Amino acid sequence: MRHAYVYDAVRTPFGRYGGALSAIRPDDLAAFVVGEQARRAPGLDPARIDDVILGNANGAGEENRNVARMAVLLAGLPVTVPGITVNRLCGSSLEAVVQAARAVESGDADVIVAGGVESMSRAPWVMRKPERAYPAGNGELVSTTLGWRLVNARMQPDWTVSLGEATERLREKYGITRERQDEFALRSHRLAHEAWEAGRYDDLVTAYPGSDLLRDEPVRPGSTVEQLAALKPSFRAEGGTITAGNASPLTDGASSALIGSGSAADHTGLEPLARIVGRASVANEPQYFGYAPVEAVNRALSKSGIAWADVGAVELNEAFAAQSLACVDDWGVDLDIVNAWGGATALGHPLGASGTRILGTLARRLVAEDQRWGVAAICIGVGQGMAVVLENVRATA
After folding, report:
1. Residue 291 to residue 309: CA distance in whole angstroms
2. Total structural domains within the chain
3. Residue 288: how many CA atoms within 13 Å on its side-chain side?
């Protein structure tokens, strides 16, 4: 079986809900990163792209009708390039990478653009169709931005609690205090700002044409512990600890990665950054979705023949500070290797785009820090988790 490699990664800056990217359609955001990914490969004939695989969590609005194929057409790529959209909620774009890797490893493809997109600002309201014609009462619009909607009555109530309430239950189970959550959130903002100032994101982030947003909009470098501590709980009025300050903000954005075989270097003009070594998808109780990355990473490492002691860099999507801390505590890793360039608490979490955001950051971090092994992990609503293990092919040690 052949190996699959990450050759490049690019994303838009992430914009706040209702912010700098809210006027841009999600299919246009997707088209931009797909086209940019092709342009960044100097030797690549776009007609040689075997597939475009994009993740998207909502799919209820302007990104309907297979946003990956729409992105191919809107980006001006040859009409012969196919596209497929996948949905594993928050893990959708990491799932896109996994499917791309499988296609490359099996010999079905040599070059694939994998990524994802989400506009949480533009996610529409939807209305259920009536069970019978001409109902006399009023209808209800339901937001598709985030979380459960149009819930099946047969679902167990504990499974369908809000993401915030689920995280409150998780932090109670594992003893994660409000103080630790706020400190973790402050760390995320500080590291994100430092990474931007140091130029770490210069090769990873490209501004959307016509937008003046050059950096991730949610980053707040001036935040203090006192300010975070003053915020009111968002999900439990009494005894709650999850706030707008220690949770990832609603955001808009798109990301992608160029996945290819070893021979893809010959017709992309790029050298690979990292090899995709292993991956795993797991599931647990839906209300404890935030803990699922624990088993996902452990299983992916085991499949890769890698121990935690070998891992030099971790990119864990920070859906909430509490669930991130629960995972890090279980792994027993040094926090210094986790999200060293900031995480989703500061950068944002546009659902379908976050998987390739953490994967691209991990690949670049491994090279920048000369670490050989790294892992990207993400929790997923309705009780799932995913992880991908990368090997830095340029490592000197």
Report:
1. 21
2. 1
3. 16
Range of the domain at 382: 5-120+249-389
The predicted-structure confidence for 74-88, as pLDDT tens digits, reads as follows 999 999 999 999 999
Segment 145-157, tens digit of pLDDT: 999 999 999 999 9
Q: Is residue 217 part of a domain?
A: no
The CA distance from 354 to 331, in Å, is: 22
Please check whether residue 187 lies inside any domain of the structure: no
151: in domain: no
Angle CA(9)–CA(364)–CA(265) in degrees, nearest 5? Answer: 60
- pTM value is 0.97
Distance from C-alpha of 397 to C-alpha of 312, rounded to nearest angstrom: 12
Helix/strand/coil for 170? helix
DSSP readout, 341-393? T--HHHH---GGGHHHHHHHHHHHHHHHHT-SEEEEEEEETTTEEEEEEEEET
Q: Is residue 197 part of a domain?
A: no
Task: Indicate which CATH number applies to the domain containing 276.
Answer: 3.40.47.10
**What element of type H or E holds 74?**
helix 67-74
Q: What number of other Cβ atoms are within 10 A of residue 229's Cβ?
A: 14
Helix axis angle for 92-106 and 354-369, nearest 10°, is: 70
Residue 64 token pair: 């309907």
Beta strand spans in the chain (E): 5-11, 15-16, 51-55, 83-86, 111-119, 125-127, 141-143, 251-260, 274-283, 311-316, 373-380, 384-392
Checking DSSP bridges between strand 384-392 and strand 373-380, what pairing results, if any? Answer: antiparallel
Catalytic residues: 90, 349, 379
Report the alpha-carbon distance of residue 200 to residue 197 in Å, rounded: 8
